[in-house]
């Protein structure tokens, strides 16, 4: 239950309640405006009360959010967790109003158990006369009983547990700057695995306590900061120079080290990524640009992040946030900060250092960062997601391979039946910044802020009974639209619809499963019929029939059954260049009238056998033969 897959789901579930917290910061910021000057004397008190109420009830918010996240948004799990927290609070309050409080620990435990109970009891059966209370309706009943017992248990061990949490916080705080450094280092390392939310939860909502002047008690770095604790914010402050300055500096280093022909496109993409990190604090689009090509550089980045956090701690800077350390939060929370203005000069120095370090590293070690190779990113077709999502689904191994699909802010979080079926190259070709395999079928695909939109489209596709035929790249080279082929017969789609390729190596492989129905005597073209009835023509070069088979070697014969990636024809590329009108190699469906819809990957460089370069839906399969 508590393997790496469960932990990544828990980390994702914790992000849902985090989206509520920025509202608290906004209310508190507004409460500090001079409302008296416009005759609204009561506004500061009301706004401050609204903001602090969110922090006061944050255990309830986390309980519900975690339950929803772990149960695929089941309202029964969410309701059960809310009821559980109400019972927990009522029981502990009735026993001793000054004793055990509804804490983040209680909220997480009840949220996790509600998610588990929903999965465990959703098919629970009772005798027919009582079945109304069976299934998911049993979950709130179960959680009510559990929460009562849990509250009773916490009353007995509450003081000891509070003492242990206090001791833990004291131990961490006793480490001083080194403890802050260690947190900063681990935070960045865990970003790569999508598990940093678990670490954040401990430090931001558990460690340390503060009693406000009104007697309210707040736990964790974040609530304490907004409640006015002058010692709070140490686990948040140092993230501002890293996120607002270091990450944009890395983005501009990548831009300036890009190839001249790719620099305009790279600049467009990474200026947006830099602005996203600076303003909102979302860092993955930049960090994943170098994580996989230079993991050792990411470790250096993590060490530097820890060092920066240590520096801000020693300088006595205290600043907080409710979501992430972006410029918006910096401005909103500035008036609560201690020496917050120092973040700007420190950040500028950090930006210069990071920019020089990364430009030198990219050039010295010839790192394949974006813009230094002919790669593509999702930003190129962000507005085309509904049409390209089927290609992403196919690169994940198809809908039969997906057991669970979720998304957080920057990545798809998947549980797959067989993670070996994932085509990493195709996913990167389709814009993924990285693919992380966690073992046990658990995979994360980083698509940036488009991730949730992609998840939504994939879920729609999985709910439809639509059969898609996936085409692999028949050769290594560059994929182009059929209209760009230097032959009017293909360019005007008189033979059929499809795509074309400029080969870099002299081997043609099968793009789909099927049977060889025609092999031209000159061996320059071959036809395949798929089980769906598609007739696929592969034509190597233009006007190559006049070569009379020179330079071509067939590896199959008519009637052979072939699989995707199986070699079909080898050809001598220099001979082709010398005699053919063009190297363009069309891949067309000659009976394209039976195709219901088409999907094309970005027209860029492809590898031989690469999945998901084209996907089609056949009318006969979609409509049960009604249109054929």
From TrEMBL:
Superkingdom field? Bacteria
Q: Where is the PTS EIIB type-1 domain?
A: 386-468
Provide the PTS EIIC type-1 domain boundaries.
1-374
Task: List each copy of the PTS EIIA type-1 domain by range.
Answer: 487-591
The positions flagged as active site in the entry are: 408
Query: A Pfam family in this protein?
Result: PTS_EIIA_1
Give yes or no: UniProt keyword Transferase.
yes
List the InterPro entries hit by this protein, alphabetically. Answer: Dup_hybrid_motif (IPR011055), Glu_permease_IIB (IPR036878), PTrfase_EIIB_Cys (IPR018113), PTS_EIIA_1_perm (IPR001127), PTS_EIIC (IPR003352), PTS_EIIC_1 (IPR013013), PTS_Glucose_EIICBA (IPR050429), PTS_IIB_1 (IPR001996)
Tell me what this protein is called: Glucose PTS transporter subunit IIA
């Amino acid at each position: 239950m508590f393997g790496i897959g469960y932990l990544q789901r828990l980390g994702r579930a914790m992000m849902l309640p985090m989206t509520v917290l920025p509202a608290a910061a906004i209310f508190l910021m507004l409460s500090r405006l001079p409302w008296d000057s416009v005759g609204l004397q009561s506004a500061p008190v009301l706004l401050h009360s609204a903001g602090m109420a969110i922090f006061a009830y944050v255990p309830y918010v986390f309980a519900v959010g975690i339950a929803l996240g772990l149960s695929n948004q089941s309202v029964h799990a969410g309701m059960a967790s809310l009821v559980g927290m109400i019972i927990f609070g009522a029981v502990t309050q009735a026993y001793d109003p000054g004793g055990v409080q509804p804490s983040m620990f209680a909220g997480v435990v009840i949220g996790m158990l509600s998610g588990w109970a929903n999965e465990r009891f959703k098919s629970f059966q009772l005798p027919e006369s009582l079945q109304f209370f069976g299934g998911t309706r049993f979950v709130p009943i179960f959680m009510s009983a559990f929460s009562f017992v849990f509250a009773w248990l916490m009353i007995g061990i509450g003081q000891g547990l509070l003492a242990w949490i206090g001791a833990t916080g004291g131990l961490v705080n006793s480490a001083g700057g080194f403890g802050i450094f260690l947190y900063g280092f681990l935070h960045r390392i865990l970003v790569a695995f999508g598990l940093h939310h678990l670490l954040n939860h401990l430090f931001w909502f558990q460690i340390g306590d503060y009693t406000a002047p009104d007697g309210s008690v707040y736990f964790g770095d974040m609530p304490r900061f907004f409640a006015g604790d002058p010692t709070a914010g140490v686990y948040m402050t140092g993230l501002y120079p890293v996120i607002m300055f270091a990450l944009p500096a890395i983005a501009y280093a990548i831009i300036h080290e890009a190839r001249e022909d790719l620099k305009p496109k790279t600049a467009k993409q990474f200026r947006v990524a830099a602005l996203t990190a600076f303003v909102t604090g979302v860092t993955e689009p930049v960090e994943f640009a170098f994580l996989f090509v230079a993991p050792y550089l990411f470790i250096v980045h993590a060490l530097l992040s820890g060092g920066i956090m240590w520096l801000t701690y020693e300088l006595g800077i205290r600043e907080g946030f409710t979501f992430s350390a972006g410029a918006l939060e910096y401005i909103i929370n500035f008036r609560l900060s201690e020496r917050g203005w120092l973040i700007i000069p420190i950040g500028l120095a950090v930006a210069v250092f990071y920019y020089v370090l990364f430009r030198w590293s990219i050039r010295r070690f010839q790192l394949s960062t974006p813009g230094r190779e002919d790669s593509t990113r999702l930003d190129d077709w962000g507005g085309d997601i509904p049409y390209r999502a089927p290609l992403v689904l196919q690169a994940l191994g198809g809908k039969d391979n997906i057991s669970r699909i979720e998304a957080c802010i920057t990545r798809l979080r998947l549980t797959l039946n067989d993670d070996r079926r994932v085509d990493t190259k195709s996913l990167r070709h389709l814009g993924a910044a990285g693919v992380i395999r966690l073992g046990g079928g658990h995979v994360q695909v980083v698509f940036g802020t488009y991730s949730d939109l992609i998840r939504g489209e994939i879920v729609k596709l999985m709910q439809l009974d639509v059969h898609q035929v996936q085409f692999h790249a028949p050769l290594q080279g560059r994929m182009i639209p059929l209209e760009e082929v230097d032959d009017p017969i293909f360019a005007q789609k008189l033979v059929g619809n499809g795509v074309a390729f400029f080969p870099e190596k002299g081997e043609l492989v099968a793009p789909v499963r099927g049977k060889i129905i025609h092999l031209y005597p000159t061996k320059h073209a071959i036809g395949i019929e798929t089980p769906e009835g598609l007739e696929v023509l592969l034509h190597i070069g233009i006007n190559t029939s006049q070569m009379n088979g020179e330079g071509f070697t067939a590896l199959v014969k008519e009637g052979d059954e072939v699989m995707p990636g199986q070699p079909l024809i080898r050809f001598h590329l220099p001979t082709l260049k010398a005699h053919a009108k063009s190297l363009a190699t069309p891949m067309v469906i000659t009976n394209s009238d039976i195709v219901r819809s088409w999907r094309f990957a970005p027209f860029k460089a492809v590898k031989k056998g690469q999945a998901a370069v084209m996907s089609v839906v056949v009318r006969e399969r979609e409509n049960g033969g009604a249109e054929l």
